[in-house]
Amino acid sequence: MVFLTHIRDNFADAFFPRLSEWWAAGVLMALGYVLIANPDLMLSSKAGAYQLLLMICSQEAWADVMRVFALMRLVILLINGAWRRSPHLRAVGAFCSCFFWVQITLSVWHTAGFLFILAAGVFVLDFANFIRAMRDARTVDYIYANARKTDGGKS
Hints:
Elements: H1 2-15, H2 19-37, H3 51-56, H4 59-82, H5 87-108, H6 114-151
């Protein structure tokens, strides 16, 4: 029971400041499930919007990779909120997520449509998440370094 109380008390404090990170990871997870639910999605596009993605790997592979990566990122965010601060892992997660958003953006750029704007917007958001997580990492590193100095190297 103490475990669940600890998660409840600390998770809320970390969730809302990182809402955009949770959102981006959730969207990536949802994309993975959409690719499973609609197995012909990438092949049925009349505008060829997914050709770049399909040149890299199959729709099934994209679905699996997106879901696994999103799950890892969601676990990192849960750990960050429930147990200890992990801005370095958050930064790695946000930076690596940019790969997906760039691939989607480049794949649909020629359509100059809604999907292009949305994908580019999520890319910019996740890049901002990366910058914010790196700022948090710098703060944690600074606090840790100062604690070691005042401990006399006993930590």
